[in-house]
Amino acid sequence: MTARCPNCSRTLVEVEDFPGLERRFLCDACGGRFRIPAVQVLLFIVLSFIVLVSFSVAVRWIPEGFIDALGFWGMIIASFVGVASVSIMRRLVLRLARFRPLPSSPPQPVSSRDVGFLAALGVQRQLRVVVHYFVPPGAILMLFAYQWWPESKWFAAILLPILIVPAVAKIWNIRCPRCRTRLFNPLVAERDRLRSATACPYCSFVPTADPEIVAAAAPTSRGRVLVAVSYLATVALMVFLVHLDNRIPQLPSIESAPLHLAELDWKFEDLTGQGHHASELLGKPLLLYVWRSSCIPCRVQVAELEKLRSALPEEIAVAGVSTDSPETLQAFAARRSLDLPLYHVDASTHARLDRRGKSTIYLIDSAGQVLLIDTRAAKWSASPVQSYLRALATRDRKTGGKVYPVT
Fold first, then answer.
1. Which residues lie across from 318 on neighbouring strands?
2. Are 219 and 20 in contact (CB under 8 A)?
3. How far is CA 283 from CA 142, 290, 322, 349, in A?
């Protein structure tokens, strides 16, 4: 699926150096010049983003044991699948795009003495692409990787050289077309002359350029505004993600009335397959987590609850219930060296406990009264949460948790 010339149906050659969203193509057979409007290219970008988001959502439902079995190669395969999806979308857009004709004769080239040496070579645009279109997505990608795979911190760390090395290599390989001297060699003290140079400072080469490309690559007020907005949006998104990662649950006052009595008329199986009644979980304040091992953010929450249980082994009880089989849960706990009690429940019980299909945490006191229902990720091992649970455990030891009549 390649771009075809509307006149002679031959393969078109894309003008790679043309800046902006608009894409331009040449036909070597008939000499035709065509363009794809920026609106159609923007549609391709939106569709590619939807494909990538759908792919990332689909990955969450892959069985957790399968992902762990693939390990590093699984991430490589997933990356190739994502890139292939974007490539397929690009080819599809080229097949369906409506090419607009341009004047067959290109404009007369202009000299670098008129527009500047860097502008004639398109260097300024290359630097803007590296900085403005590469850094913000890379920063967000690294943060997402750290959030979703906290047990694999090396994965987020390895992204750093993967993101930086291509950018540095692209700048390092900018050369003069004639003498092939690197223009941004840090060992050469000619960098300050490049901005105002009209020819190569090493061989006096005077390149020519397409005036349309030079004009489109020039920075504009609208471009500066878009760059500023993109950076502000990136910072806002990163702050939001960090806030989610460090959110402390909004715990109710210990003296406030409970929401309702917990529905503990269901049964569960431990990792040995033995059946139990839910009421056996009571005896001290209970954090009940309703989750699935196929949900990557849920694994983050399980690790957080493991830290909380280790900090308060005598004061509270923590348990996780899932529709995963006891064998799957046992393998999950073994891979991560978890002591957190994990139990199996049937699908109907799981559907009763989770809220709108989301993983849910119930805070239940010793008398079976629900104090809190939380469906958002939170830092349950934080010091304020530990202090609250200690106070709740002390209250329950004195009163048995029966403080308010619940109807």
1. 287
2. no
3. 42, 19, 22, 22
Of the pLDDT bands very low, low, confident and very high (cuts 50, 70, 90), residue 386 is very high
CA distances from 65 to 23, 58, 336 (A): 44, 15, 12
Is the dihedral angle over the CA atoms 351, 356, 361, 365 positive or is it negative? negative
Digit-coded pLDDT (tens) for 326-379: 998 998 888 888 889 999 999 888 888 876 667 889 999 888 888 898 888 788
- The ranges assigned to domains in the chain are 1-106, 109-245, 260-399
Tokens (6 digits) for 7: 């006149």
Chain centroid, CA 156 distance in Å: 11
Q: What is the pLDDT of residue 317?
A: 92
For residues 343 and 52, give the distance between their C-alpha atoms in angstroms, rounded to a whole number.
34
Q: What pLDDT was estimated at residue 2? A: 62
Contact between 278 and 267 under an 8 Å Cβ cutoff? The reply is: yes
User: At what angle are helices 38-60 and 72-96 packed, to 10 degrees?
Assistant: 150
CATH architecture of 260-399: 3-Layer(aba) Sandwich (3.40)
- Alpha helices by DSSP H, listed for 177-295, are 191-194, 211-217, 221-245
Provide, rounded to the nearest whole percent, the portion of the chain with pLDDT above 70.
Answer: 69
pTM of the predicted structure, to 2 decimals = 0.53
Q: Around Cβ 71, how many Cβ atoms within 10 Å? A: 10
Cβ contact 371:293 at 8 Å: no
- Residue 314 in this model has a pLDDT that exceeds 70: yes
17 vs 93: CA distance, rounded Å: 19
Q: Where is average pLDDT lowest: 9-13, 113-117, 158-162?
A: 158-162
Cα separations in angstroms, 179 against 71, 197, 202, 324: 46, 16, 8, 65
